[in-house]
Design a protein that fits this description.
Isopropylmalate Dehydrogenase, binds 1,4-dihydronicotinamide adenine dinucleotide, about 40% helix, alpha/beta
């Protein structure tokens, strides 16, 4: 059986890294038929809309998608294309597994964290007003129902994956209502899971503790903005943005994408690391139950990283996107 999945190549390095991913997954025998649609800058230039309706329709129909990074046109009053997709499709969980990889030297070994980010609220609601010239307010949205929804998802994920400790990180001392609602929701849902260790920590404290020893953490549950920031921090702990995959998951639809953005500084040079998007593709395979092929791709990734002969520049090597991808296909 072939699965139909939506492919959004994305902007900047997006087409390079999603192209590499499609090649590797095909070489691994992944039975996926891609339906390609465009969002972001490319879509905006062609249609005047960053997320055209056909993108949402395709994802609503296929229920699974792989997405390259998107650039949001600036200064036109548009919502971020990424935020639009997450909000329109209610992809309320941002899932980012952060794991040490072989052959990538970092200050810590054995990092194995999962960052869970509430994807639909917080300052990403995009509500900003200029009250008076130079006096701006941004609205931080926090509903108890959204806090409970992602907390439930988090505990169920942990149960299924055998994860043991969840840390809910926020700043209720400064925002007792918005952050307080998030923490309250977490604690309420947590009562149903007494067999999973749980704590709440101030987000600033967590940042320091992660830098000092990330192996003390297991699952981090965060609001939207702090989840965005800590995802990048955690990526830095295991080798950078080139090696951390992710998914935006709702009750019906899941869109897989790397943590990184369009990397305009290296776009078009053919040197981007495709691993983060490829690993997101592996997560897609796991999501639909194609574990054997997912494992096969993972073994090829492990093999190439361990040998260290074909690493991209961000990992200290001299390979480019194509030679790295070729090495992965050879390893398969
Ligand atoms: P970025 O992640 O694009 O780049 C940060 C740094 O990491 C750059 O030096 C870049 O070269 C490097 N980098 C990122 N991915 C890499 C890869 N695969 N291989 C090698 N090096 C890599 O973040 P930045 O510069 O803040 O954002 C650029 C654009 O991307 C912005 O328009 C932003 O809105 C958008 N963006 C989109 C995201 C998405 O679609 N999910 C997420 C983050 C940013």
């Amino acid at each position: 059986m072939a699965y139909k999945a939506t492919l959004i190549p994305g902007d900047g390095i997006g087409p390079e890294v999603t192209g590499a991913t499609v090649r590797v997954l095909a070489a691994a025998g992944a039975p996926i038929e891609w339906e390609t649609v465009h969002a972001g800058r490319k879509a905006f230039e062609e249609t005047g809309i960053p997320v055209p309706e056909n993108v949402l329709t395709s994802l609503r129909t296929n229920r699974i998608g792989l997405k390259g990074p998107l650039e949001t046109p600036k200064g036109k009053g548009f919502r971020s294309a990424n935020v639009t997709i997450r909000q329109e499709l209610e992809l309320y969980t941002g899932l980012r597994p952060v794991k040490s990889l072989p052959g990538i030297i970092t200050p810590y070994e054995n990092v194995d964290l999962v960052v869970l980010r509430e994807n639909t609220e917080d300052l990403y609601a995009g509500i900003e007003h200029e009250l008076a010239p130079g006096q701006i307010i941004s609205v931080k949205v926090s509903t108890r129902s959204a806090g409970e929804r992602i907390s439930k998802w988090a505990f169920e994920y942990m149960r299924y994956r055998g994860r043991r400790l969840i840390s809910c990180c926020a700043k209720p001392s400064v925002n007792p209502m918005s952050d307080g609602a998030f923490v309250d929701a977490f604690q309420k849902i947590g009562q149903d899971y007494p067999y999973i260790a749980q704590n709440t920590m101030p987000i600033d404290n967590v940042s320091m503790a992660l830098a000092m020893d990330p192996t003390n953490f297991d699952v981090l549950l965060l609001q939207n903005l702090s989840g965005d920031i800590l995802s990048d921090l955690c990526a830095g702990l295991v080798g950078g943005l080139g090696v951390v995959p992710g998914a935006n998951v709702g009750d019906r639809i899941a869109v897989f994408e790397a943590v990184h953005g369009t990397a305009p500084d290296i776009a078009g040079k053919g040197i981007a690391n495709p691993l983060a998007v490829l690993m997101s593709g592996v997560m897609l395979l796991e999501h639909i139950g194609e574990r054997a092929i997912a494992d096969k791709v993972n073994r090829a990734i492990w093999d190439v990283l361990e040998k260290g002969e074909h690493l991209t520049g961000d990992l200290g090597g001299n390979a480019n996107t194509k030679t790295f991808t070729d090495a992965l296909i050879d390893a398969l």
